[in-house]
């Protein structure tokens, strides 16, 4: 693609770049995905790792939906903004919890807690702990309790994170 002179920053109708597409692929360990991602991150592609699409979704948000801890860590190592929020006010931690990716919850949590971001409220007034409880993944909840997340903060409906345990939805963030 790049050898043909095609711009790697070109956007589709959703405002996504090839980098969004490569990062968000769910086939975590395939050569296709990892090879393309490394190619785009290399000197050939040089993508903006914090570019947002039409819904303010950045590549780090898409990486948080995958099963790949490596991809999330790689994004942060490349300078992904841990403070980036979607149009709904959700961070990478919110999204990892919503999509039940307990294996990737720890990485952004580790980074964001050190930057004081554990209590970011989305447009519904929910913290990532609300979504961790709602996910049914006890590993994720333990991570938040382990870093001192506030279990008493309430959302706009007056629900605390532990109340969200009763709301086990079937949702796919994409």
Describe the fold and architecture.
- With 174 residues, the protein is an all-alpha fold.
- It has a single domain, classed as Ankyrin repeat-containing domain (Serine Threonine Protein Phosphatase 5, Tetratricopeptide repeat).
- The protein is 40% helix and 0% strand.
- The protein is built from eight helices and no strands.
- The protein has helices spanning 18-24, 31-41, 59-63, 69-77, 92-98, 102-114, 128-135, 138-146.
- Helix 1 (18-24) packs antiparallel against helix 2 (31-41) and helix 4 (69-77) runs parallel beside helix 6 (102-114).
- The protein is elongated and about 50 Å long.
- The model has no long low-confidence stretch (mean pLDDT 79).
Total count of strands: 0
Round the Cα radius of gyration to an integer and report it. 16 Å
Level-2 CATH architecture:
Alpha Horseshoe
What is the ordering of alpha helices and beta strands? HHHHHHHH
Strand content: under 5%
Mean residue pLDDT:
79
The low-confidence runs, each spanning 5 or more residues with pLDDT under 50, are: none
Helical run tally:
8
How would you summarize what this structure contains?
The protein is built from 8 helices and no strands. The protein has helices at residues 18-24, 31-41, 59-63, 69-77, 92-98, 102-114, 128-135, 138-146.
Task: Please give a handful of descriptors for the protein shown.
174 residues; mainly alpha; Serine Threonine Protein Phosphatase 5, Tetratricopeptide repeat; 8 helices; 40% helix; ANK repeat
